[in-house]
Amino acid sequence: EDKVVQSPLSLVVHEGDTVTLNCSYEVTNFRSLLWYKQEKKAPTFLFMLTSSGIEKKSGRLSSILDKKELFSILNITATQTGDSAVYLCAVESRDDKIIFGKGTRLHILP
Amino acid sequence: DGGITQSPKYLFRKEGQNVTLSCEQNLNHDAMYWYRQDPGQGLRLIYYSQIVNDFQKGDIAEGYSVSREKKESFPLTVTSAQKNPTAFYLCASRDQAGGSYEQYFGPGTRLTVT
Predict the structure, then answer these.
(1) Which residues on B lie below 8 Å from A27 (Cβ)?
(2) Given CB atoms, is A5 within the 8 Å cutoff of chain B?
(3) Rounded distance, CA A82 to CA A16, Å?
(4) Can you name the residues that pair with A43 across neighbouring β-strands?
(5) What pairing do the DSSP bridges indicate for beta strands A30-38 and A56-58?
(6) Neighbours of A15 (CB within 10 A)
């Protein structure tokens, strides 16, 4: 059975800290791994990763994929209170099925 | 403006009634998806459709039905057979041919069944 496991499930840090969110997966016919940020309603897209070892970066956020060990990490440096959200990892298989993890709830204390 | 719309935003129903959630997109996307979100559960895939007149079950399809008669529309019916229908429902679409694989989400419908 395909599955995506995120850890930790929740995390509380102080503003300015750096956080690392983890996503491991077991998916048949992997095509891509996606990261989303969900604040109130619908998730917003952050990154799509398809190749191992190539870091994707956007401002203070970065992500990398390891297809051999079947995991990805999402790093956020110099965290701000606006980074507080649920971060979702999803994996897509070649038959277009997309499976989400349970998410990591990140809370940044001022 | 291009995007995905879901209606209504909030929906209340009595137990035993079927209810249909609307999802419409004008992005010309081929693929559409329905997810259910419960607290602490992330998003769970109910059904998805890669092309008109075709759809596949996701991980939790029992008690739900869908149709894809038009490219723009992918309505989800929550039937009385669904044991725990109260949840937040999200619809998404994706451009298969574009190569970006990014899903675009609608604003969601919060269904409460009492």
Answers:
(1) none
(2) no
(3) 12
(4) none
(5) unpaired
(6) 14
Cα dihedral A29, A31, A34, A40, rounded to 10, equals: -70
Q: Nearest CA to A13 among A80, A103, A89?
A: A80
* pLDDT higher than threshold 60 for residue B1: no
Hey, what's the torsion of the CAs at A77, A100, A103, B12, to 10 degrees? Answer: 130
Angle at B11 between CA B8 and CA B13, to 5 degrees: 145
A61 pLDDT higher than 70: yes
Contact criterion met (CB < 8 Å) for B56 and A48: no
A40 touches chain B (CB under 8 A): no
Q: Across the interface, do A96 and B50 touch by the CB < 8 Å criterion?
A: yes
Reported as a single tens digit per residue, the pLDDT across A31-41 is: 899 999 998 77
Check if A46 contacts B (Cβ < 8 Å).
no
Task: Test A45 with B103 for CB contact under 8 angstroms.
Answer: yes
